[in-house]
Amino acid sequence: MTTAPVDFEAFPPKPERSIEELIREKRAEPLRSVEDFMEPGVFESDEEVDEFIAAVREWRNASLA
User: Fold this and answer.
1) Model's pTM, two decimal places?
2) Which residue has the higher pLDDT, 1 or 10?
3) CB 37 within 8 A of CB 31
4) Backbone angles phi, psi at 59, to 5 degrees
5) CA dist., res. 26 & res. 44, Å (int)
6) 43, 49 in Cβ contact below 8 A?
């Protein structure tokens, strides 16, 4: 089976949107607690959670210095 090459010019890129437009589009809401991160699918493993928490602590400590 052979496939024809894709004509990417037939699919123009979507225009860039501002962060405000993306937030409105996704109806995103601010995080209110750490539990908001515990939704299924946010992190793939407990190790990722631990790495995230360590990074946040590092960022906070760096901003205090």
Assistant:
1) 0.41
2) 10
3) yes
4) -65, -40
5) 22
6) yes
